[in-house]
UniProtKB/TrEMBL annotation:
Pfam family, one: tRNA-synt_1b
The protein's name in its UniProt record: Tryptophan--tRNA ligase
Class in the EC hierarchy, top level: ligase
A single Gene Ontology CC term: cytosol
Annotated InterPro entries: aa-tRNA-synth_Ic (IPR002305), Rossmann-like_a/b/a_fold (IPR014729), Trp-tRNA-ligase (IPR002306), Trp-tRNA-ligase_bac-type (IPR024109), Trp-tRNA_synthetase (IPR050203)
Annotated binding of ATP, by residue: T9, T10, T11, G17, N18, G154, K155, D156, L197, K204, M205, S206, K207, S208
Keyword Protein biosynthesis assigned: yes
Amino acid sequence: KKRVLTGITTTGTPHLGNYVGAIRPAIAASRSDDTESFFFLANFHALIKCQDPKAVHQSTKEIAATWLALGLDPEQATFYRQSDIHEIPELNWVLSCVCAKGLMNRAHAYKAAVDANVAEGEDADKAITMGLFNYPVLMAADILMFNADQVPVGKDQIQHIEMARDMAQRFNHLFASKKQPLLTLPNYQVDEHVAVLQGLDGRKMSKSYGNTIPLFLTEKQLRKHINKIKTNLLEPGEAKDPDDSTVFQIWQAFANEEQTAEMRQAFADGIGWGDAKGKLFELVNAELAEPRERYNDLMERPQDIEDILQMGAAKARKISQPLLQQIRQAVGIYPLS
Ligand code: TYM
């Protein structure tokens, strides 16, 4: 069976970008008989960006409830919290000892932080923690710990998967035989149609830009958010360019082919922005209405979510514990005899 694995950082409230870019395709794939799925809450990664304990904790609950509400079957998939898998931070250390510092210097997230500091005339390393620098190594540990074949992610994460591949290769080269590599080289999987969803301001929808549309708003709030999507100043009746429109881009992510063609035509015919947004609300709401109810219900029962995560951790550790033993053995860490 093919192993598919992906994670979400537990900061903030899940948004349409996470849903379209990660959760929806992941859950769909997990229903196929020839895959074995691993989904997890990356709460160690959250500490890199967020030093508000209540926020990290709350977000963990919200994201867990989100996956379950959207139809993830925790019996079929393995659904867990990163911090419950004690083998991950250990592998993180082992990988950090085979990973070249130069590789990490090229990581986008780190480079962006350095560039921002420099642009502001600050010290290049200001507020850059070892956690941020090490981010791709921890992520590689998440992936390699379960010998994942496929990692479905948004485009922003491709570089991290490639780095995980590099680390796996390096580890195998140093510590395993060619015939029996210990770590599987992972592949990223990006859905080209909906790779990066735009946010309210037209930039990538992202917690860090504050431009998101959260997944489980009330209907009223969802409509309000959709109405806030930035549009250019074209009057009703003027032809609009769908390929330069966040409204159309989000439409496409929720519509079938026929609906997409219809909206493309409506844009050419100069549909008013108010109308287009009204239709977008209906479309998105139709997909999210039922999961929203399940979500609200689950959020009232945190102990049930906790039980599911514990079950997931037990399942996951059946794999991570023996693999870590092999890794320890390979690097020379085993009992004296
Ligand atoms: P995170 O939490 O930033 O995002 C989770 C997933 O959602 C995707 N995504 C988007 N997709 C489309 N449009 C958007 N606007 C959008 N915003 C976010 C992201 O690409 C990602 O797939 N480092 C990861 C979490 C992680 C992980 C892992 C993922 C930790 N360990 C191991 C895979 C495997 C992250 O911060 O994702």
